[in-house]
Write a structure and sequence with these properties.
InterPro entries: 5peptide_repeat, Pentapeptide-BTB/POZ_domain. The chain has 451 residues and is largely without helices or strands. It has a domain of 204 residues: E3 ubiquitin-protein ligase SopA (Pectate Lyase C-like, 3 Solenoid), CATH 2.160.20.80. It has two helices and eight strands, in the order βαββββαβββ. The strands form four sheets. It has a two-stranded parallel ribbon. The protein has a two-stranded antiparallel sheet with strand order 3-4. It has a two-stranded parallel ribbon with strand order 5-6. It starts with 18 loop residues before the first strand and ends in an 82-residue tail after the last strand.
């Protein structure tokens, strides 16, 4: 055993050669690793290769660059842990809690993640391909070691809302795995077994699924723009509402006039109180490829179910607009003005809403209109610095959203999902979050918004 834990006590594990650690012994290793990470004297990198850490907790700890090669980590608590560039080669992570963990560039080749919870985890550029453990014999040759046949297994794992951008999953087994709303841009899934997996709303833009088995999987509303699917098996897969390069709904060309002309007519209609010009209705229209819409006026516009996927809408004006169920995934709405608009059920997954204005629109001294995002999807959205005062976000999905610096006073967050959201308790002191999920239990409702 070449790790820095040599000499630690422990009982024999069910895996030959593995040493069982207690929580106290593990905490000592983690303490020295924290000193190592902070360049303090006496620190040492955590080398826990072949250790049995089943059921122990490392929640929230900085384990970047730690070595867990061939370790037993069943049912371990790694929620919120930092595991950047960590080595988890052929590790047994069955049933592990990795919610909101950061596994950027982690080596998970051959790791067994069957039934593990990786919801909201950041696996950017992580390696989850097959792996085989070998040891060097005395004569210098490599000897293949016996590896549990369940390794390289993601079956039945929970990866909802996780970030798998650029991740390598070629040859992985992910049957019945939940990838709902995951970001899998440019991921490598060559020959992956995704039978009966749940990929609803998953962003697979630019991903490579060549030779993958996706039979019986659900890809409802998934993004398949630029996705490579050579020899991909899709028998029985549910492809309802998938977004590809082809227009979803009506193409903008069917509107009869150029977008520039329609926007000018609409601006005239708004500025003359509907006496001149023409109101613009974009309901069900796929706006991709229709031109630049940044800084344009769509005040009082209508676009129910419209597609704005990936578009630059910087500074756009949508005050008192009707855009329920519209698709704004990955769109840029930085500094946009959405006051008083209705965006119920709209999808803002991974959208950029930095410094956007979504608070109420004051009509006169007595009347105001609140922006309505009831039931909207804002998973992984950037709302930092946004104005959200009195906004309606009941039942909205804000998991892993960035709300740092946002003004949430008097907001309605009843029943919202805030799991993994970046938000401070002081921001919630004048908020109704009755029934909201994902916030610390020590936080309490302090304000009930007036109707």
């Amino acid at each position: 055993m070449e790790s820095g834990t040599r000499g630690l006590g422990g009982t024999a594990s069910e895996r030959p050669g593995a040493v069982r650690l207690t929580q106290e012994q593990l905490d000592l290793v983690l303490k020295r690793h924290a000193m190592f990470r902070n360049a303090k004297v006496g620190g040492a990198r955590a080398v826990l290769a072949r250790m049995d850490l089943s059921g122990l907790t490392m929640a929230g700890r900085d384990l970047s660059h730690a070595d867990f090669t061939h370790a037993i980590l069943r049912d371990v608590d790694l929620s919120g842990a930092l595991l950047e560039c960590a080595t988890l080669f052929v590790a047994d992570l069955r049933g592990a809690n990795l919610r909101n963990a950061r596994l950027v560039k982690a080596d998970l080749r051959g790791a067994c993640l069957r039934g593990a919870d990786l919801s909201g985890a950041d696996l950017f550029d992580a390696d989850l391909r097959d792996g085989t453990l070998a040891a060097r014999a005395r004569d210098g040759s490599l000897q293949i070691m016996s590896v549990d046949p369940t390794n390289a297994d993601l079956a039945e794992a929970n990866l909802r809302g996780s970030n798998l951008t650029n991740a390598k999953l070629s040859g992985s087994v992910a049957m019945h795995t939940d990838f709902t709303d995951a970001i899998m841009r440019n991921a490598k899934l060559v020959r992956a077994n995704l039978r009966h997996a749940k990929l609803d709303g998953t962003n697979l833009e630019g991903a490579d699924l060549s030779g993958a088995d996706v039979r019986g999987a659900s890809l409802r509303g998934a993004v398949l723009i630029g996705t490579v699917m050579n020899l991909t098996e899709l028998g029985g897969a549910d492809m309802t509402g998938v977004l590809t390069e082809k227009p979803q709904g009506r193409p903008a060309a069917e509107l009869g006039r150029s977008m520039a002309e329609l926007l000018n007519l609409h601006a005239t209609w708004v500025c003359t109180a509907a006496k001149e010009g023409m109101a613009l209705d974009l309901s069900g229209v796929d706006l991709r490829g229709s031109g630049i819409l940044s800084r344009v006026m769509l005040t009082r516009g209508v676009g129910r179910g419209a597609v704005f996927y990936g578009m630059d809408l910087t500074g756009i004006q949508m005050q008192v607009g009707q855009f329920d169920n519209a698709d704004f995934r990955t769109a840029t709405l930085a500094e946009a003005d959405l006051r008083g608009g209705s965006f119920q059920g709209a999808n803002f997954n991974a959208a950029n809403l930095r410094h956007a204005t979504l608070d109420y629109l004051q009509i006169d001294a007595e009347r105001h209109v609140r922006t309505n995002l009831t039931g909207a999807i804002l998973r992984n959205a950037d709302l930092s610095g946004a104005r959200l005062r009195r906004i309606r976000l009941a039942q909205a999905d804000l998991s892993h959203a960035d709300l740092r610096g946002a003004d949430l006073r008097e907001a309605d967050l009843r029943g919202a999902n805030l799991s993994g959201a970046l938000v401070q308790e002081e921001q919630m002191r004048a908020v109704d979050f009755t029934g909201a999920r994902g916030l610390p239990r020590t936080w309490h409702v302090r304000y009930v918004a007036d109707e």
